[in-house]
Every structure is written in C-alpha cells, then in structure tokens.
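Supplementary Methods S3. Complex input for the BQF-bound model.
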Amino acid sequence: MELLDGKKLAQDIKSELRQAVDALLAAGKRAPHLAAVLVGDDPASQVYVRNKVQSCEQVGFRSSLIRLPADTPEAELLELVDQLNFDATVDGFIVQLPLPRHINEERITLAIAPEKDVDGFHPVNFGRMAQGLPTYLPATPYGIVEMIKRYELPTQGREVVVVGRSNIVGTPMAILFSRKGYPGDATVTVCHSRTADLAFHTRRADIIVAAVGIPELIKADMVKEGVVVIDVGINRIADPSREKGFRLVGDVDFEGVSQKAAFITPVPGGVGQMTVVSLLMNTLKAAQGEIYPKA
Ligand code: BQF
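Predicted complex, serialized as structure tokens:
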C-alpha cells in the first residue's frame, strides 16, 4: 500500500504558488487576493476558514476574512456578496458553507459573480465543467484530480465507483471521471443512500471515491485487492482520549481497507489538504484572468 500524501502534495503546490506570486510581483502586479465570508460560529467552519487564511499567508496571497453573526439576514449577506462582486481589489471570494438555516445557500451561490466564484459552485461554472470548458473546478474535485495526476494513477477504462452525489463532490467527480481524456475515460458508477447493494458495486471498483459523510462506511470486505481509495470524509467522532474530545475519521475504515488497497488517502492529511490548495490555485487563476479574461 502506498499513501496518497495530501500533505506533501499540498506543500509542493504551495511552493509552486509562492513562485507564481513572486513572478507576479516581479512583473509589477499585486498579489492575488482571496476574501472569505464566515457567517456564524460553527466550530468546523471556523477551522476550515482559518486553514484557508493561513494557507494564503504561506503563499503570499492577500486574504480578507469577513465574519458575520449567525443571525445575519439573508438580504444583508446578499448585499455583501454584491459588494465583493464589484470590489476590484478582490480577485475571488468564498462564502463558507454550511450557512445558517434561515439563509438559502442556492440564492447566495447564484449571487456570486462567476468570475469571482473560486469555489466553483455557481451553476455557470458547474456547467462549464460539465462541458469541459475552462472553469474554476470545485475545490475538492480539483484537489482529487491534481492528486491523481501527480501520482500518475491511470483512469482510462477503469471502473470508478463514486459513493455520494452531492453538488460539490460526488456529482462533479462522476462527471470528471467520465469525460474524455485524462483523468477521465473511466466507467463511472454513482452510489448513494438509495443504492440497493453498495458492496456489490464497491467490490467491482478499481477506484473508489467515498464522499458521503458516514464515518468508516467502506470496510475491507467491500473492496477488492489493489483498489485505489480516495477518502473525502472528514467526520468528527467522540474520543475522550484526545485533548479536543474528538478525532477525525474518513468515510473509509482506513485500518482495514489499507490492508487491501494499492493507494489510499489518509484522514487527516489527504484530500482535505488538497481542497485548501485548490482554492488557492483557483484564486491565482482569478488574479491572472485565466478563466474569464479581464477587460
Ligand atoms: C486534513 C469541508 C465538509 C463540509 C464543508 C485539511 C481541511 C480539512 C481536513 C479543510 C472542508 C474539508 C473544508 C484537512 C475545507 C476540507 O488535513 O485532513 C484541510 O480545511 N477543508 C471546507 O471549507 O468546508 C467543508 C468539509
């Protein structure tokens, strides 16, 4: 078994990003600028936003964190989004999900200008992805694609099983693996909560992407020898022996499945790390007008 080391790859990519920033500055341009909006005080969301801000610092990006109280009216958030859309000093921005229940995530996502949608959640960017046009790939799928490329894992003709069908991971991964060219050309099966026999599908898989948010759902007896396992799950489970009272586990039983896998991502230190650097790669593209050329 070989680990798919997200931490190591993320470090490599960060040093590439630092060099790109140096080149921009040397050309008399300013550093890329990412803004992040955090509504409320969900503990996991606070960690994620902090990871993003710290990563910006590490590569020399400018970042702005805008914190709003949990009871911020939707209209107020929409106004902020509009302000960021028109702020020429901001190259790209994200609104951290999940949002408080009284705010409609779809309405917020639709309000973000596609040119600044570095999370790649706007339907325009999703549509461009589905058609293979230049776009901001959603950060987790982008991270997984980058991981597969950098480990040179073959996908052509492979049986891929995606477990989960969310708009931000499962569905885009299924589209990307089935597209023409590398890392596509695979045969894709999408499994979900209504799948009759999950193990029947996962046992046939050459590559499994687990993105359902169920701790350690995928067990050793559900996979074949030599499988490639991409574990997208970041689940907090109670662990009184830890200082914080919890530990992180994926959607895959790492202990068991790693005995049979050829390649597997750890949690933590796997896909999550790639997700954060992918957001930075999208922000660089935004600053350079690579997807939507600047006027
Ligand atoms: C690691 C996320 C679910 C819902 C909304 C590194 C992150 C996580 C883990 C991180 C995630 C998950 C993020 C590790 C951002 C990934 O070392 O394993 C980084 O910061 N993530 C998010 O912004 O929103 C989410 C998961």
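Residues 211 and 232 are 5 Å apart (CA to CA). Residues 48, 51, 97, 234, 267-270, 272-273, 275-276 surround BQF (CB under 6 Å).
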